[in-house]
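User: Hey, my collaborator sent me this sequence without any context and asked if I could get a structure. I don't really work with proteins. Can you help?
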Amino acid sequence: MWRRLGVALVGAMVAGAAQPAADRTRHARQIDAALLFLPRGDTLRVAASGFHEPLASLLWVRTVITFGERYDTDASEEWREWLGGAVLAVNTLDARWLTAYHYGGGLLRSTGEIAAASAVYERCSETIPTDGWCPFSRGMNAYLYERDRELAAKWMRVAAERPGAPGWWAAAAAGMLSEGGARESALRYLDAQLAEAATEAETHYLERQKRRIQHDQMVDQWAEACRQHYRDAGERLSAPGALTELGFALPENPRGDAWVVGNDGVVRSEGAEAQRRRDALGDERALVVAPR
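Assistant: No problem. I've predicted the 3D structure and written it out in structure-token form, which is a compact way to encode the shape of the chain:
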């Protein structure tokens, strides 16, 4: 009897310990099953039989919930692809719903789906010619992520011509072709986005972009002096703090990592220097494999 009771007790303990893992597995499979259907707006619009706006609202709720469940917890590409399809489907079902354009583009950008976000902004710009925010956001995508200031200026000029456009948009379009003007415009844009950010994840993403631009502005102030010192002395600064020898105080790093002296002699953040080296390596590889 005591032996049977002991076996039963051990079995209960094992089952109890295994239950949390089983619950997690079941939950994960349920979420994955939700992504089996990738919505297409044109198909859903026909199937909705005139109820396309209510269906757009339901799909939008599901889109936001999926974003909340997956962001920062799921590194796979499947849910990001689904999210892009879902936002575009909502745009198709209710083509005049500005919220789904403005915030939908923001959600996609926060997940790194820049091309999908740009597609949302372009569709909005075409469908709602009175809206200026979407073409302006498309221009900022071109500057912040595609590194194409000419394309950015083009879209920002479109935005500046829209009814009720703030006066600084025209100045931003004109200044976009200079690096300094582009950064000032980007900072004002990011501040406006932060004021309307719908989720903590989007806020975190926008703040990170803002800190990177602030860092680049700082580095620009002393970059040429660092290079001149390198040329004159034949050696780089001994440490980032040696900026004081060139007449510059070393401020707190907006990016949050360490200041370093780059191999070109310029003081910048450790992360920015690593990215600069990766970019340089990519350029060298392109030269090696480029056809003659």
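In plain terms: The CA atoms of residues 1 and 80 lie 56 Å apart. You can pass these tokens on to your collaborator as they are.
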